[in-house]
Amino acid sequence: MLVFENVSLKPYNTFGVDVSADRLLELRTGGEVDSFLASGFDAGSCLILGSGANILFTGDFHGTVARIATKGIREISRQDGRVLLEVAAGEVWDDFVRHCVAQGYYGVENLALIPAQVGGAVVQNIGAYGCEVKDVVSSVRAVCLKSGEERSFSREECGFGYRTSLFKRHRGEYMVRSVLFSLSLEPLFHTEYGDVAERLRQRGGTTISSVYEVVSEIRREKLPDVKVLGSAGSFFRNPVVPDGKWQELHAAFPQLKGFPEGDGVKLSAAQLIDSLGWKGYRCGDAGVHVRQALVLVNYGRATGGEILQLACDIRDSVEQRYGMRLEEEVIII
Ligand code: EPU
After folding, report:
1. Can you give the CATH number for the domain in which 52 is found?
2. Which structural domain range is residue 257 located in?
3. 58 with 89, same domain?
4. Which atom of ligand 1 is nearest to the CA of 279?
5. Residues 121-132 pLDDT 10s
6. b vs e for 279-293, b when ≥16 Cβ sit within 10 Å of the residue's Cβ?
């Protein structure tokens, strides 16, 4: 296990915020995870970190950061047209997706190029272009950090929701160790989101690779490459409002888009923010991305506090105009 004391977390969060941690442990094997779990660490002052792609640090972290860097993709079984894969929490999400695309395992190609590790992908129930990770999760192996109990959680027990799960709702209580994915061996495409189908038509057909490429192309056009420009993807969730509120909003602002979602209507947070002129706004090194108003960016030296201040200003302005409060998707520490 690699151990660092008083270390900068800048390379460990995609916002690129320069804060420090008292201690950083890098857990690269199952054995190192076991040693860490047996070490009598204080769960209250410990942060389990994956790729740091959905986190905003607003100050130094006075405790231990345990970074999960375990690797491994193992085939467990094949039956009824599906393959079951066990994947270590520390696998880079896009490496896993590319593995599936190369092998012809269908179900994650729409989730191309998302900055994440497999564990974080499940905690956050990542989603894009009409698919969510929960659609292909069979079960999750996780440890309760308080009791030390390790067990498998069925998909139902994971309590997945829009960009959330049991593990996110009980932040700090669990460490995901591995995930069992169930993927289809038969083609099964979801191409109805945005202009995915049209782009596939222009490319001459829908295959697992062409879906991966089209989604990657759209992402590259709209979203910043976190290696070049710090960000954590969408900063806020898309709000879901009751039907009555939607009718009211739609009457006052007919240009607003709404999509049916459960009992209510999901609005586009990007559209709300964009409509107030925030896209491309910059204050110091904290800004709103020039092509996606839902994405806050760090041009270099922004602090977590400055990015958070910008998020609060955006939230207030949306609340003032539209009478609803945006909720963060990003975890703020
Ligand atoms: N739009 C604007 N202004 C903008 C950007 C978008 O008005 O600056 C409008 C577009 O016209 C479009 C609508 O907003 O009709 C939706 O935009 P987009 O397709 O980019 O999706 P989104 O709802 O803003 C969500 C996810 C993204 C995911 C995309 C694609 C959330 C919070 N975000 O964004 O996920 O990649 O859909 O499926 O659900 C993430 O979670 O970090 C993330 C990037």
Report:
1. 3.30.43.10
2. 230-332
3. no
4. 8
5. 999 999 999 999
6. bebeeebbbbbeebb
216 is catalytic: no
Same domain (yes/no): 63, 119 = no
- Residues 236 and 327 both lie in one domain: yes
Which of these three, 184, 214, 249, is where a domain ends? 184
Active site residue 321: no
Tokens of 114: 């998302």
User: Beta partners for 267?
Assistant: 258
| pLDDT block averages, 10 residues each, the chain of length 333 | 95 98 97 94 92 97 97 97 98 98 98 97 97 98 94 98 95 96 97 96 96 97 95 97 95 96 94 98 98 98 98 98 96 96
Here the CATH number for the domain that contains residue 91 is: 3.30.465.10
Token couple for 213: 């490429």
Which amino acid, one-letter code, is at 126?
Answer: I
Give yes or no: residues 11 and 101 share one domain.
no
Residues 6+ apart with CB under 8 A from 267: 238, 239, 240, 241, 246, 249, 256, 257, 258
Domain of 236, CATH number, reads 3.90.78.10
Which ligand 1 atom sits closest to the C-alpha of 291? 8
Cβ of residue 169 lying under 6 Å from some atom of ligand 1: no
User: How many domains does one find in the chain?
Assistant: 3
| pLDDT tens digits, one per residue of 57-109 | 999 999 999 999 999 999 999 999 999 999 999 999 999 999 999 999 999 99
**Same domain, yes or no, for 243 and 289?**
yes
Instruction: Say yes or no: CB of residue 289 within 6 Å of ligand 1.
Output: no
Model pTM score? 0.95
Report the separation in Å between the CA atom of 238 and the middle of ligand 1, taken as the mean of its atom positions.
Answer: 8
Residue 270 Cβ inside 6 Å of ligand 1? The answer reads yes
